[in-house]
Design a protein that fits this description.
By secondary structure, the chain is of the alpha+beta class. The protein folds into 2 domains: about 90 residues, no CATH class; about 150 residues, Rossmann fold, CATH 3.40.50. It is built from 7 helices and 12 strands. The strands form 2 sheets. Strands 4, 5, 6, 7, 8, 9, 10, 11 and 12 form a 9-stranded mixed beta sheet that branches. It has a 3-stranded mixed beta sheet with strand order 1-2-3. The longest helix has 18 residues. It is globular.
Length: about 250
C-alpha cells in the first residue's frame, strides 16, 4: 500500500506516492496541504537504481560499499525525482552547506570530506544566534528575477541541520584546507568546474540545456570566493568578513 503526501520545497508543491511510511516522516518539516504542481512515485526499480549508483560512487572513492536500507534509498529516489521536476521551475539541487547570517545566505562547497559542515559550524559558534543553518547537505537553489534563493530541503545531511526557509544567496565559496586562513574573490568561470561537479545533473538528457542555463544564472547571481582555512574559529570570522563586506576583502 502506497503512502501519499504532499510537500512544498523551494516554493513548489509535489505530491509523493511512496512505498514506505518512513519517507513521509523524513519529509515531515515540508508537509503541505493543497494542490500539487507535480507528482512523483517510487518503485523497487528506483531503489535498485539508487543502490547501484551508491555502490558505484563508493567504488570510485575507494571505500567499502555501504549497505543502505530500502527505506533510506527511497528518500534518495524521491529527492532525485523532485529535483528533476524542479528544473522546469528554475531550481537546481546543489551539494553544499548553506548558512544564513542576518537573512543572507552563504554557500560553502567542496569535495566530500573537506570540511563544509565543520566550517559552517564554526560560523554558528562565532556568530551565535545571527547564524542559522539553511541546509547542511542538499539545498535547492531557485533562480529568480531578483537573484538566487537558497532553499531548505528534507535532505539536510547526517546531522539533520537545516530549516524550512529560503534566503537570498549572497556568495558561494569553494573551501579547501590550508595552514593559514585566506580568502579571495574569484570570477565565476573559475568556479565552473566545482559548480558542475556539485550540482545535480538531470537524468533526462533533454533537460541538459535547462541545466546549463541554470548554472549560468547561478554564476551571474552571486559572488564567488575561494577559501583556504585551518578549521579554527578565526577561519569563520575571516570568511564572514570578506563575503559579507563587513571587513577587509582579504585577510591572511
Amino acid at each position: 500500500m502506497m503512502t501519499e503526501f504532499t510537500v512544498k520545497i523551494a516554493g513548489r508543491t509535489a505530491a509523493v506516492r511512496a512505498m514506505f511510511p518512513s519517507t513521509r516522516d523524513y519529509c515531515r518539516d515540508y508537509l503541505w496541504e493543497g494542490a500539487p504542481d507535480f507528482t512523483v512515485e517510487t518503485s523497487m526499480a528506483d531503489i535498485a537504481f539508487e543502490r547501484e549508483k551508491s555502490a558505484q560512487e563508493d567504488r570510485l572513492e575507494g571505500i567499502p560499499v555501504r549497505r543502505f536500507s530500502d527505506a533510506y534509498l527511497e528518500t534518495v529516489a524521491v529527492q532525485r525525482k523532485i529535483a528533476e521536476h524542479l528544473f522546469a521551475y528554475d531550481t537546481l539541487l546543489f551539494h553544499g552547506s548553506v548558512v544564513a547570517v542576518d537573512g543572507e545566505g552563504y554557500l560553502f562547497t567542496a569535495k566530500s570530506g573537506t570540511g563544509k559542515s565543520t566550517h559552517t559550524r564554526l560560523w554558528r559558534q562565532v556568530l551565535g544566534d545571527r547564524a542559522v543553518m539553511v541546509n547542511d547537505d542538499k539545498p535547492f537553489l531557485r533562480m529568480t528575477e531578483q537573484g538566487v534563493l537558497a532553499c531548505g530541503s528534507p535532505w539536510n545531511g547526517k546531522h539533520g541541520l537545516g530549516a524550512n526557509i529560503s534566503v537570498p544567496l549572497k556568495a558561494v565559496c569553494i573551501l579547501e584546507r590550508g595552514a593559514e586562513n585566506r580568502i579571495w574573490p574569484i570570477p565565476a568561470r573559475e568556479a565552473l568546474g566545482m559548480l558542475l561537479q556539485q550540482s545535480n545533473r538531470p537524468m533526462d538528457r533533454k533537460l541538459l540545456p535547462k541545466y546549463l542555463e541554470l548554472l549560468d544564472k547561478l554564476a551571474g547571481g552571486a559572488a564567488f570566493y575561494r577559501l583556504a582555512c585551518n578549521m579554527e574559529p578565526m577561519a569563520a570570522l575571516v570568511s564572514y568578513q570578506a563575503m559579507s563586506g563587513n571587513g577587509k576583502d582579504e585577510q591572511r
